[in-house]
Amino acid sequence: xxxxxxxxxxxxxxxxxxxxxxxxxxxxxxxxxxxxxxxxxxxxxxxxxxxxxxxxxxxxxxxxxxxxxxxxxxxxxxxxxxxxxxxxxxxxxxxxxxxxxxxxxxxxxxxxxxxxxxxxxxxxxxxxxxxxxxxxxxxxxxxxxxxxxxxxxxxxxxxxxxxxxxxxxxxxxxxxxxxxxxxxxxxxxxxxxxxxxxxxxxxxxxxxxxxxxxxxxxxxxxxxxxxxxxxxxxxxxxxxxxxxxxxxxxxxxxxxxxxxxxxx
Amino acid sequence: xxxxxxxxxxxxxxxxxxxxxxxxxxxxxxxxxxxxxxxxxxxxxxxxxxxxxxxxxxxxxxxxxxxxxxxxxxxxxxxxxxxxxxxxxxxxxxxxxxxxxxxxxxxxxxxxxxxxxxxxxxxxxxxxxxxxxxxxxxxxxxxxxxxxxx
Lengths: 264, 150
Prior knowledge:
- The structure holds two protein chains of two kinds.
- By secondary structure, chain A is of the alpha+beta class.
- Chain A is built from eleven helices and 14 strands.
- Chain B contains five helices and five strands; from the N terminus they run ββαβββαααα.
- The chains are: A alpha+beta, B alpha+beta.
């Protein structure tokens, strides 16, 4: 095994072009578990910790650009938390302070787990993912980036560079069901947003389909929305819960979330 | 591969395997067994250390990622023979049962008090939510942090 530590994004993309099997590691909260338990022995690890271009967030053209290395702790902090409140709520539910200090939005996208907490809030805000390689950069809607359970649209030589969002400013919330408040992988999660201007409700479900999935309906159809959310899900029975329970929980979360967003 | 880092204020060099964690580097390469090895997946908090001043689980940091960086472990909290206030508080409150979780909790509590010298009850519980005590001695641990904050 070798560890490659680029200092710039260009250098990182060059490494990915030469060694497309290299596994990117940023916060390590997913990759290190695989290494510690002998589940993965990649030929090369690409340590992205020294690439400053991936860090932090900035305002751009009325929107925000979230660097792939943005941590959950940073996503919880003002003023970003006020711009993307559902993302901040989701970030607060991730792991523990130790995990939130290391885990990143880019890592959530790279891992592409159906339970990734950052994914539903970004979906309801219409986020776009910026990926890059030596061949150039491209942007694609988050919904097109997520392909399946732990599968995304990255080519072997590409890296997630940033997420672009135009904060809607609409009432929104994120809710997650699990056995305790901390250290929980979502049994189900839901981000929901009420957009009065467009007369639309947007929700995204987590841990209840192979990928985090967007569900939209006209505001006039609010009464039937919880049922629509439950029907859109394709949950499975697993160690954390049954499919039936997941559908039930989604119905409850959708009703509760709508109530909160419409009252705001 | 060779790495060089600052640990508890001292420059340390280590020859490490590329895939090993910072926790392994600290315990097995540098002779600092204070940070405990339990879950190895960030669930238990017993390996909590500061990396460039940020609270992290050392088991989830690749040793190579600490190259050129600053690490403070539980061994580095005391000032010579003078214990850190949170260490004194753990002793005074009897916040130690088997002791395995203690180093991680002490480091996490030190991080909390640095960020928020007078934490609310919610802040306290949130700050220590990533540290498990399987003796379930949480009440005395919370008492210790409250007294160090008071």
